[in-house]
Amino acid sequence: MELPLGIQVPIPTFEQFIFIQVALVTAVAGLAVVTSRNLFHSALALTLTFFGVAGVYVFLEAEFLAVSQVLVYVGAIAMLIAFAIMLTRSMMYGRTSPLNNQWGKSSLFALLFFMGLLAFARATPWPAASEEVIADEAMIGALGREFVTTYVIAFEVLGLLLLLALVGAVMLARDR
Amino acid sequence: MVPLSWYLMLAAFLFSCGLYGALGRRNAIAMLMGIELMLNAANINLVAFWRHGVGPMADLTGQVFAVLIIGLAAAEAAVGLALIIAVYRERRTIDVDELDLLAG
Amino acid sequence: MQITQWSDALSGWLIGLGLPEWAAIFLVYAVGAFVLINYGMLSVLLLIWITRKVISRIQDRIGPNRVGKFGLLQTVADAAKLLSKEDITPREADKIAYNLSPILSVSGVLMLLAVIPFAPGLIGVDLNIAALFVVALGSIGIMAALMAGWGSNNKYALLAGFRVVAQLLSYEIPLVLSILTVVLLTGSMRFGSIIESQSLHLGGFNLGVGWLGIVMPGALLIFFISSLAEAELTPFDLLEAESELIAGFHIEYSGMKFAMFFLAQFLNAWILAAVMVTLFLGGWQGPGVGLPVVGPLLGFGYFMIKVFGVYVLQQWIRGTFPRLRIDQMMYFAWKVLVPLTIGLIVVQAIVQKLPTPVAVHYVLIFIANVGVLAIVASILQKYFREEQMRTKRSFEPTSLIGTMQVNEEGTMY
Do A88 and B84 touch (CB under 8 A)? Predict the structure, then answer.
């Protein structure tokens, strides 16, 4: 396909076409999270980003991870954030700018960082996706076995961390 | 087939957005949202590299780490938001520019 | 006849017409989604009619009987009335959240229809993580309620939004854990294989009554209670408690947007009944589903009878139970249901590793489940008795005027 200025654009396959749409929604929502002036709209955009990332996991044939992403991020984290925004809603009114006094430096840094990563991602000759067929059900079983064999310590520590976080959050947020 | 570099570009964009949000926003909850974005970007990379690795069925390390990060993000959000609410109750603000009690 | 074969036949026919492969697959999925969504939308008409009839009978009324035969078209008339109403948006509302919330709540429920197995082979997608998918999509409904509560800019709506989050998140945990008992027993999260495992063969003939609910009545009860809470039905309908919060989080909505919340709520109750039937009551299993031609038709009939039976049961409870207080509701979720289900899972995990025949496993799991049932029943009995005593006492005079005195037993002398 040739664009007016003589730029050659390869015609995307159907899968690539759908991926571009998902990625665009995710990226625009991600941008809206950090640029929206209304904090609640930021949280809504964050939820949309989480869904978009779950969609990306589906493209990568990691359905279990996609559903876990929706379950944990949308079901718990986005909800917690929306809750916290509602509890601190006086912060949303009478504010001159949603940005702090180092936003200029940080935007420059983020932009440079993005440029660097982009150049790196484009320049490196990455391997194509493995031809191996992903057997869904067998993979979930294998994932479970990995957690109780090779990564058992990480798994247990994560469980302990979640318990501590639970107790700590209750202690911190409790009305005294 | 979607090439690996596309996933990496999307992840890079999300990570940079999160970086900007975590460094440049005034509200502590907005900073936390930036951090969540960065964790998600890292997760996309992990899963993309897992899928494009040598043997996705034999070596599940990428997915294992992605699951661990999801669990970690839940813990982080719970404690972080509890801290923010505790600070809000004490100081009536969660503006990071005004929370300078420890600044010299 | 499998739906995969139908869809293969359809896509093959479309490719034969000269369409590229991706377009054919896309069209087949679009047709499937169209059929499912329309089924969902239309079935709500019937569901609302059933609810009204059941509750009318309980309250010794006749119910709708004017529009159409037996009042069947009453809901259509109501929908037409709602459509013609003015669409009001509060001036200070958060427009994005306010307008997005009804769409989100309906689409979250409609997406669940994709994994419901209606008959042998008649299923949108036989997802390998269907059980998890059902739970994950439940969170969209919570988000929608929170958005509606915030977007309406009304304190009653916001309060109800908080209550929605508290209730639905709390009851999601026993719901997930009771699903986990089934997953632990069948070793699969795929609805297709969970139903397959509930067949009972007798000399080559499929009786189809090896329902998991028979082996695990405790898990079934916990799932049913949690699904009542998830569907926001009585006794857990304090989200929309008409007497306190007027209508809950959708108080500011009118016309079509209100109808969409209504639709989502009824369809959600039906889908939770369908998931319960799939997990515990054998899904489309029943005598004779293994037969070549009539089998799938019989299966569809069995599934529908079971699901609508559970739906009527839900509405029966709705018509007879009083509403719980919020502290009672949270107490019951966190101090009764969650520990019991965790205990059940631990027992089941140990039992399934015992080096005995499988039949012994089933007997032991059954005993554990009966124990759970007994514990739940005794806790409820004790609680209600105490509550009864407390309310009785509160009507009695507390001062010791004259000779009237109240002794320890609560009797007067």
Answer: yes
